[in-house]
Protein backbone atom coordinates (compact mmCIF):
# COMPACT_ATOMS: atom_id res chain seq x y z
CA UNK A 1 0.00 0.00 0.00
CA UNK A 2 1.44 3.37 -1.04
CA UNK A 3 0.70 6.43 1.11
CA UNK A 4 0.89 8.64 -1.99
CA UNK A 5 1.16 7.66 -5.62
CA UNK A 6 1.86 10.29 -8.29
CA UNK A 7 0.62 9.73 -11.83
CA UNK A 8 2.76 11.54 -14.41
CA UNK A 9 6.54 11.94 -14.61
CA UNK A 10 6.52 15.38 -16.24
CA UNK A 11 7.13 18.78 -14.67
CA UNK A 12 4.41 18.88 -12.01
CA UNK A 13 4.54 15.19 -11.05
CA UNK A 14 8.33 15.14 -10.66
CA UNK A 15 8.27 18.41 -8.73
CA UNK A 16 5.73 16.92 -6.32
CA UNK A 17 7.88 13.77 -5.92
CA UNK A 18 11.05 15.82 -5.24
CA UNK A 19 9.44 17.87 -2.47
CA UNK A 20 7.85 14.80 -0.88
CA UNK A 21 11.19 13.00 -1.13
CA UNK A 22 13.06 15.88 0.46
CA UNK A 23 10.88 15.68 3.60
CA UNK A 24 12.18 12.20 4.38
CA UNK A 25 13.72 13.17 7.73
CA UNK A 26 10.54 14.62 9.21
CA UNK A 27 9.09 12.31 11.84
CA UNK A 28 5.61 12.33 10.30
CA UNK A 29 7.05 11.15 6.96
CA UNK A 30 8.93 8.20 8.47
CA UNK A 31 7.66 4.96 6.99
CA UNK A 32 5.54 6.67 4.34
CA UNK A 33 5.64 4.86 1.01
CA UNK A 34 5.67 7.22 -1.96
CA UNK A 35 5.71 6.33 -5.65
CA UNK A 36 5.57 7.95 -9.08
CA UNK A 37 4.60 6.61 -12.48
CA UNK A 38 7.54 7.99 -14.39
CA UNK A 39 5.79 7.54 -17.74
CA UNK A 40 7.10 10.23 -20.08
CA UNK A 41 6.08 9.42 -23.65
CA UNK A 42 3.38 12.08 -23.93
CA UNK A 43 5.08 14.78 -21.85
CA UNK A 44 4.99 18.38 -23.11
CA UNK A 45 8.71 18.33 -22.36
CA UNK A 46 9.49 16.06 -25.33
CA UNK A 47 9.59 18.96 -27.82
CA UNK A 48 10.13 21.93 -25.51
CA UNK A 49 13.12 24.31 -25.39
CA UNK A 50 13.54 26.48 -22.29
CA UNK A 51 14.97 29.99 -22.23
CA UNK A 52 12.58 31.52 -19.69
CA UNK A 53 12.23 29.10 -16.77
CA UNK A 54 13.57 30.20 -13.41
CA UNK A 55 16.69 28.27 -12.32
CA UNK A 56 17.06 26.45 -15.63
CA UNK A 57 19.99 27.41 -17.86
CA UNK A 58 18.82 28.95 -21.15
CA UNK A 59 18.86 26.56 -24.10
CA UNK A 60 17.88 23.57 -21.98
CA UNK A 61 15.91 20.93 -23.85
CA UNK A 62 12.79 19.47 -22.32
CA UNK A 63 13.96 16.01 -23.40
CA UNK A 64 17.09 16.54 -21.27
CA UNK A 65 14.96 17.54 -18.30
CA UNK A 66 12.96 14.32 -18.64
CA UNK A 67 16.02 12.10 -18.15
CA UNK A 68 17.78 14.42 -15.68
CA UNK A 69 14.72 14.63 -13.41
CA UNK A 70 14.51 10.85 -13.16
CA UNK A 71 18.19 10.72 -12.27
CA UNK A 72 17.82 13.60 -9.77
CA UNK A 73 14.95 11.83 -8.01
CA UNK A 74 16.69 8.46 -7.89
CA UNK A 75 20.02 9.88 -6.69
CA UNK A 76 18.68 12.33 -4.11
CA UNK A 77 15.62 10.40 -2.93
CA UNK A 78 16.06 6.70 -3.76
CA UNK A 79 13.34 5.81 -1.26
CA UNK A 80 10.73 7.11 -3.74
CA UNK A 81 9.58 4.24 -5.93
CA UNK A 82 9.75 5.05 -9.63
CA UNK A 83 7.46 2.91 -11.75
CA UNK A 84 8.78 3.06 -15.31
CA UNK A 85 6.97 2.48 -18.60
CA UNK A 86 3.48 1.97 -17.19
CA UNK A 87 0.47 3.98 -18.25
CA UNK A 88 -2.41 4.43 -15.83
CA UNK A 89 -5.73 3.43 -17.33
CA UNK A 90 -8.17 3.10 -14.43
CA UNK A 91 -8.71 4.04 -10.80
CA UNK A 92 -11.09 2.33 -8.40
CA UNK A 93 -12.05 2.87 -4.78
CA UNK A 94 -12.18 5.85 -2.50
CA UNK A 95 -9.92 7.46 0.11
CA UNK A 96 -7.97 5.99 1.79
CA UNK A 97 -8.15 2.83 -0.31
CA UNK A 98 -7.63 3.37 -4.04
CA UNK A 99 -6.49 0.83 -6.59
CA UNK A 100 -4.60 2.23 -9.58
CA UNK A 101 -4.57 0.00 -12.67
CA UNK A 102 -1.95 0.35 -15.39
CA UNK A 103 -1.47 -1.42 -18.71
CA UNK A 104 0.74 -3.92 -16.84
CA UNK A 105 -0.18 -4.10 -13.14
CA UNK A 106 -2.17 -2.61 -10.26
CA UNK A 107 -1.19 -0.72 -7.09
CA UNK A 108 -2.95 0.23 -3.84
CA UNK A 109 -2.62 3.75 -2.48
CA UNK A 110 -4.15 6.07 0.11
CA UNK A 111 -3.58 9.30 -1.87
CA UNK A 112 -3.50 9.88 -5.63
CA UNK A 113 -1.82 12.86 -7.34
CA UNK A 114 -2.63 13.25 -11.05
CA UNK A 115 -0.34 15.40 -13.23
CA UNK A 116 -0.72 14.06 -16.73
CA UNK A 117 -1.24 17.25 -18.71
CA UNK A 118 -4.31 18.90 -20.22
CA UNK A 119 -4.72 17.05 -23.53
CA UNK A 120 -8.31 16.15 -24.31
CA UNK A 121 -7.29 12.54 -24.85
CA UNK A 122 -7.56 12.12 -21.05
CA UNK A 123 -8.93 8.64 -20.49
CA UNK A 124 -8.29 7.48 -16.92
CA UNK A 125 -11.46 5.60 -16.03
CA UNK A 126 -12.65 6.56 -12.56
CA UNK A 127 -11.56 10.20 -13.00
CA UNK A 128 -13.48 11.21 -16.11
CA UNK A 129 -16.40 12.53 -14.03
CA UNK A 130 -14.11 15.38 -12.88
CA UNK A 131 -13.13 16.48 -16.42
CA UNK A 132 -14.23 19.99 -17.45
CA UNK A 133 -13.05 22.35 -20.23
CA UNK A 134 -9.77 24.05 -19.33
CA UNK A 135 -10.70 27.39 -17.76
CA UNK A 136 -7.57 29.28 -18.88
CA UNK A 137 -6.76 27.82 -22.30
CA UNK A 138 -8.16 29.02 -25.64
CA UNK A 139 -11.43 27.17 -26.31
CA UNK A 140 -10.29 26.17 -29.82
CA UNK A 141 -7.38 24.24 -28.28
CA UNK A 142 -9.93 21.98 -26.54
CA UNK A 143 -7.74 21.50 -23.47
CA UNK A 144 -9.27 19.97 -20.38
CA UNK A 145 -8.68 20.08 -16.63
CA UNK A 146 -10.00 18.28 -13.57
CA UNK A 147 -12.46 20.28 -11.49
CA UNK A 148 -10.63 21.13 -8.27
CA UNK A 149 -10.42 23.49 -5.36
CA UNK A 150 -6.83 24.54 -4.68
CA UNK A 151 -5.65 21.31 -6.40
CA UNK A 152 -7.99 19.03 -4.42
CA UNK A 153 -10.36 17.08 -6.66
CA UNK A 154 -11.98 14.87 -4.03
CA UNK A 155 -10.96 13.28 -0.74
CA UNK A 156 -7.53 11.72 -1.37
CA UNK A 157 -7.31 12.91 -5.00
CA UNK A 158 -5.13 15.89 -6.03
CA UNK A 159 -4.39 17.31 -9.48
CA UNK A 160 -1.26 19.22 -10.56
CA UNK A 161 0.10 21.20 -13.51
CA UNK A 162 -1.88 22.08 -16.60
CA UNK A 163 -4.47 19.42 -15.72
CA UNK A 164 -5.23 21.47 -12.58
CA UNK A 165 -6.25 24.38 -14.82
CA UNK A 166 -2.98 26.32 -14.83
CA UNK A 167 -1.51 27.96 -17.91
CA UNK A 168 1.23 26.04 -19.65
CA UNK A 169 4.52 27.37 -18.23
CA UNK A 170 7.17 25.19 -16.64
CA UNK A 171 7.50 27.31 -13.50
CA UNK A 172 3.75 27.25 -12.91
CA UNK A 173 3.55 23.47 -13.34
CA UNK A 174 6.54 22.91 -11.04
CA UNK A 175 5.02 25.23 -8.42
CA UNK A 176 1.72 23.43 -8.64
CA UNK A 177 3.35 20.03 -7.99
CA UNK A 178 5.35 21.48 -5.10
CA UNK A 179 2.19 23.06 -3.65
CA UNK A 180 0.40 19.71 -3.61
CA UNK A 181 3.42 18.06 -1.99
CA UNK A 182 3.32 20.57 0.87
CA UNK A 183 -0.46 20.07 1.21
CA UNK A 184 0.13 16.33 1.58
CA UNK A 185 2.97 16.90 4.06
CA UNK A 186 0.69 19.21 6.07
CA UNK A 187 -2.00 16.52 6.04
CA UNK A 188 0.52 13.94 7.29
CA UNK A 189 1.52 16.45 9.98
CA UNK A 190 -2.06 16.34 11.30
CA UNK A 191 -2.96 19.65 9.66
CA UNK A 192 -0.10 21.70 11.07
CA UNK A 193 1.51 23.73 8.27
CA UNK A 194 4.83 22.41 7.05
CA UNK A 195 7.21 22.60 4.10
CA UNK A 196 10.61 21.12 3.20
CA UNK A 197 13.75 23.29 3.20
CA UNK A 198 17.46 22.50 3.23
CA UNK A 199 19.95 25.08 4.39
CA UNK A 200 23.72 25.58 4.56
CA UNK A 201 23.34 26.75 8.14
C1 LIG B 1 6.67 22.56 -27.57
C2 LIG B 1 6.55 23.13 -26.17
C3 LIG B 1 7.36 24.18 -25.80
C4 LIG B 1 7.27 24.72 -24.50
N1 LIG B 1 8.07 25.77 -24.16
C5 LIG B 1 7.97 26.30 -22.93
C6 LIG B 1 8.78 27.41 -22.58
O1 LIG B 1 9.57 27.91 -23.38
N2 LIG B 1 8.68 27.90 -21.30
C7 LIG B 1 7.81 27.38 -20.39
O2 LIG B 1 7.78 27.85 -19.25
N3 LIG B 1 7.01 26.34 -20.71
C8 LIG B 1 7.07 25.79 -21.96
N4 LIG B 1 6.27 24.74 -22.30
C9 LIG B 1 5.26 24.28 -21.32
C10 LIG B 1 5.72 23.24 -20.29
O3 LIG B 1 6.49 22.23 -20.88
C11 LIG B 1 4.44 22.66 -19.65
O4 LIG B 1 3.67 23.72 -19.09
C12 LIG B 1 4.71 21.64 -18.55
O5 LIG B 1 5.48 20.55 -19.07
C13 LIG B 1 3.39 21.13 -17.99
O6 LIG B 1 3.66 20.24 -16.94
P1 LIG B 1 2.62 19.10 -16.53
O7 LIG B 1 3.19 18.40 -15.37
O8 LIG B 1 1.26 19.67 -16.44
O9 LIG B 1 2.58 18.11 -17.80
P2 LIG B 1 3.78 17.30 -18.50
O10 LIG B 1 5.09 17.91 -18.20
O11 LIG B 1 3.37 17.17 -19.92
O12 LIG B 1 3.74 15.90 -17.76
C14 LIG B 1 2.69 15.00 -17.92
C15 LIG B 1 3.23 13.59 -17.69
O13 LIG B 1 2.17 12.65 -17.55
C16 LIG B 1 2.52 11.47 -18.23
N5 LIG B 1 1.30 10.74 -18.54
C17 LIG B 1 0.34 11.06 -19.44
N6 LIG B 1 -0.65 10.16 -19.41
C18 LIG B 1 -0.32 9.25 -18.46
C19 LIG B 1 -0.95 8.09 -17.95
N7 LIG B 1 -2.14 7.68 -18.39
N8 LIG B 1 -0.32 7.39 -16.97
C20 LIG B 1 0.88 7.79 -16.48
N9 LIG B 1 1.52 8.89 -16.92
C21 LIG B 1 0.91 9.61 -17.90
C22 LIG B 1 3.27 11.94 -19.46
O14 LIG B 1 4.04 10.92 -20.04
C23 LIG B 1 4.09 13.07 -18.86
O15 LIG B 1 5.32 12.61 -18.36
C24 LIG B 1 6.34 24.17 -23.58
C25 LIG B 1 5.54 23.09 -23.97
C26 LIG B 1 5.62 22.59 -25.24
C27 LIG B 1 4.73 21.44 -25.65
From TrEMBL:
The protein's name in its UniProt record: Pyridine nucleotide-disulfide oxidoreductase
GO terms, molecular function: oxidoreductase activity
Pfam families listed in its UniProt record: Pyr_redox_2 (PF07992)
SUPFAM superfamilies in alphabetical order: FAD/NAD(P)-binding domain (SSF51905)
Organism per entry: Flavobacterium flevense
Superkingdom per UniProt: Bacteria
The FAD/NAD(P)-binding domain, residue ranges: 3-153
InterPro entries given in the database record: FAD/NAD-bd_sf, FAD/NAD-binding_dom
